[in-house]
Amino acid sequence: RRWTAGGLQPAPAPVSPPPLADTDLLRADPHAQILWARDSKGSTLCAANGHHTTTPLKNSDMLQLTEALTSTRPAEVAALLEAVSPGLQRGAARTLLQQLESFGAVRRHS
After folding, report:
1. For residue 2, which of 37, 35, 44, 49 has the smallest C-alpha distance?
2. How many whole angstroms separate alpha carbon 92 and alpha carbon 12?
3. What does the alpha-carbon distance between residue 85 and residue 99 come to, in Å, rounded to a whole number?
């Protein structure tokens, strides 16, 4: 985690981890902070480790995901997806989890 680079160095580029399996265990990196807020277009802006993305997930879904990811125990991807609204939201949640992993904000555990 970078605390500061005086604004002179960019954040490290996101990595390309393998696709998430439903049985993968995830937990937020304890040194990363996952921030989110609704934007003016009705989407949710999500940021971590100097990177950001947008997602259609609602506030309630974001709260469920971030609380589960920051708990003391890793959570299975399938359980994380079950915590959000059914339908397209679950696909959006999987995409967001993959993006957060690429940002280094979420880690796989065994």
Report:
1. 49
2. 24
3. 19
E strand or H helix that includes residue 95: helix 88-102
CA 52 to chain centre: 10
Sheet holding 35-38, edge to edge: 35-38, 44-48, 51-55
Q: Name the residue among 88, 90, 106, 94 with its Cα closest to residue 34.
A: 106
Q: What is the dihedral of CA 16, 18, 22, 26, to 10 degrees?
A: -50
Question: What φ, ψ does residue 91 adopt, rounded to 5°?
Answer: -65, -40
pLDDT in tens, 29-63: 999 999 999 999 999 999 999 999 999 999 999 99
Nearest alpha carbon to residue 75 among 18, 1, 20: 20
Q: What share of the chain is helix, strand, coil (3-state, %, to 5)?
A: 30, 20, 50
**pLDDT band at residue 13 using 50, 70 and 90 as cut-offs:** confident
pTM strictly above 0.85: yes
